[in-house]
Specification:
With about 220 residues, the protein is an alpha/beta fold. It contains 7 helices and 9 strands; from the N terminus they run E-E-E-H-E-E-H-E-H-H-H-E-H-E-H-E. The strands form 2 sheets. Strands 6-7-8-3-9 form a 5-stranded parallel beta sheet, sandwiched between helices. It has a 4-stranded antiparallel beta sheet with strand order 2-1-4-5, with helices on one face.
Length: about 220
């Protein structure tokens, strides 16, 4: 599903070019899970942004589902993100003025889908029930616990039925018990739905649970 070849990512600063990722190679099969670890500044989030078609690489190939996303135009990248990817971040990024249901539906606002609004709402309700929030559809983020907010974010990431989920420190802002529950949920979805899961984390226990580990500090 994912194959990265000879990936370079550089950032230009006044009078200097900073090499964040250099000559990176790795691959991940469809339906598999991997954790990306490494010291601060090793490029973990940068790699996730490249995989998410949010940041073009300086050079190299980034194949996802047989498409080289490094060659996408901005329009193609936006369509790819909406159709193929689900994102979960350390901060949930829920919109405070919207209900839980409305937050889950926000990725559908880009349009281009044949599914009716009713069908989408039924599926969103099913996702929220699956993550344990079937009783919270009409609540707003301010009425939720930290774990409930992150579970809402997971449901939002699934609404477009992505083939790949990219999670950047999804448990980083949660206490240990709540973080473990969110990790359990992501790994359960990966196994049951057959989605490909990439988790950036500094938590080595979580990385070990995920299975495959890419250590940018050693690559």
């Amino acid at each position: 599903m994912i194959k990265v070849s000879n990936l370079d990512v550089n950032f230009e600063t006044p009078g200097e070019v900073v090499e964040v990722l250099k000559g990176l190679d790795f691959s991940l099969d469809e339906g598999a899970a991997a954790a990306v670890v490494g010291p601060s500044g090793s490029g973990k989030t940068t790699l996730l942004n490249v995989l998410g078609a949010l940041l073009p690489p300086t050079s190299g190939s980034v194949m996802i589902g047989g498409e080289d996303i490094a060659k996408f135009t901005e329009e193609e990248a936006a369509r790819f993100r909406n159709r193929e990817l689900g994102f979960v971040f350390q901060q949930h990024h829920l919109l405070p003025q919207l209900t839980v249901m409305e937050n889950v539906l926000t990725p559908r606002l880009a349009g281009g889908w044949e599914e009716s609004e009713h069908e989408t709402r039924v599926r969103a309700a099913g996702l929220l029930k699956r993550v344990g929030l079937g009783h919270r559809l009409d609540h707003r983020p301010g009425e939720l616990s930290g774990g409930e907010k992150q579970r809402t974010a997971v449901a939002r990431a699934l609404i477009n039925q992505p083939r790949v989920i990219l999670a950047d420190e999804p448990t980083g802002s949660l206490d240990g018990e709540t973080g473990n529950k969110v990790a359990d949920l992501l790994l359960e979805i990966q196994k049951e739905d057959g989605v490909t899961l990439v988790i950036v984390t500094h938590d080595l226990d979580l990385a070990e649970r995920v299975g495959g580990v890419f250590d940018l500090g050693k690559m």
